[in-house]
Each structure stands twice: as C-alpha cells, then as structure tokens.
Amino acid sequence: MHKLVESRLLAGFIYGDSRTEEYVYLPGSELGSSSPVLVYEQNGSREDIPMEKALEIIEKRSLRQTTHPLFGRNTLQ
Question: What number of other Cβ atoms are within 10 A of residue 4's Cβ?
Fold first, then answer.
C-alpha cells in the first residue's frame, strides 16, 4: 500500500481529512527532487516532512485522497 500512496503523493494528489483539517501533500517546487520534502498541515500550521514520515502519518491517521481548501485535488495542476 505504501508504494501506491507514495506514487500518488509524487503525482501531486493530496491526502487528508477536511473534518480535522489535516493534509499531506507534495509542493510543486519539490517535483523531480531526489529526496522530496512534503508538507503536513494540521490546524493551520505547516511542517516540512520526509516521505517516510508522510506515509506514516497517512497510515496512522487513516488519511484519504481529498480536496485541499486552497489547492483543490492536486498540487501540480
């Protein structure tokens, strides 16, 4: 499952939960990076995180593909 989620994150899809205002996504500036840094948003704060931590958060918090209030469904469009 991690490989599927990882590939979707790298394609710009956003994982999160609008009810708890949590989101994990790859900023467009990280596209093509050898060690991409993702963003974890929670309650209005942002934190840069590595892919491993992003996958851990998504699994632990049961985050699903969602729509971000600012970026929509994909950060790369």
Answer: 8
